[in-house]
Amino acid sequence: DWCLSLHDQLKPSDKERIERKERYLRLLSSCATQMLEFSAKHAEILLKEKVVTLLDICTWIRPRFTAKSKQTAIQTVEFIGSLMPGEKKQREQVCVLVCEALEHSAPEVHKKTLDFVLKFGLPGDAELRARIQSCLDRIAPSQSDRLTAWLASTLPAGKTKTPSASKTHDSPAHAFDLKK
Question: What is the arithmetic mean of pLDDT over 30-39?
């Protein structure tokens, strides 16, 4: 797109980029691939400059977790994973937001989201466990055993039982799970 090219040719200064941070973040929810790549590049720069947090980026990119296209949702989870911080509190909050992708109907999105949770999720995070447990009845059958195992392995001390994923899936999302 010529306007994106023009923007890059104008080479905005750090000050100009900071002044327009809200605009870059707002573009993260765009459906257009070129616009997303453009805004992601600039959001990543702002993150490295500590002008925005990953939580800011997740807040604006959220609609992409449940986008109609499963590829869009998968790429969004991967993008957030590539930026994941080491700081505990922010990791916890980001993991909970990324779990929104478990609302997607595609089993491939569930798999990518669970990969993310297994890599970045903190076992003792009660909010993350609660968010995941709220999605158990909608998770793809091909991923439910994996998710149930993670929940069981992250039980707080003294607890011995975790809810299991329902084997009867009434949700339309499960009609498309080809790995049954």
Answer: 82
Hey, CA dihedral for 38, 40, 46, 52, is it positive or negative? positive
> How large a percentage of the chain has pLDDT more than 90?
48
Q: What 3-state DSSP class applies to 50?
A: coil
CA distances from 75 to 60, 124, 145 (A): 15, 27, 24
DSSP 27: G
DSSP 79-104: HHHHH--S-HHHHHHHHHHHGGGGGS
Contacts of 2 (CB under 8 A, 6+ apart): none
Tokens 């993670």 identify what position?
150
* Other residues' Cβ atoms within 10 Å of the Cβ of residue 147: 24
Neighbours of 27 (CB within 10 A): 19
Share of the chain above pLDDT 70, in %: 86
Whole-model pTM? 0.77
166 phi, psi to nearest 5 deg: -65, 135
